[in-house]
Amino acid sequence: MILDKFKLNGKVAIVTGASRGLGRGMALGLAEAGADLVLVGVSDMTASRQEIEKLGRRCATVTANLNDKDCVATIINTAVENMGGIDILVNNAGIIRRAPLLEFAEKDWDEVINVNLRTLFFLSQAATKVMVEQGRGGKIINVASLLSFQGGILVPSYTASKSGVMGLTRIFANELARHNINVNAIAPGYMATDNTKALREDPKRSVELLARIPAGRWGTPDDLMGAAVFLASEASNYMQGHTLVVDGGWLSR
Question: Which of 35, 68, 85, 136 is deepest in the core (most CB within 10 A)?
Answer without folding.
Answer: 35
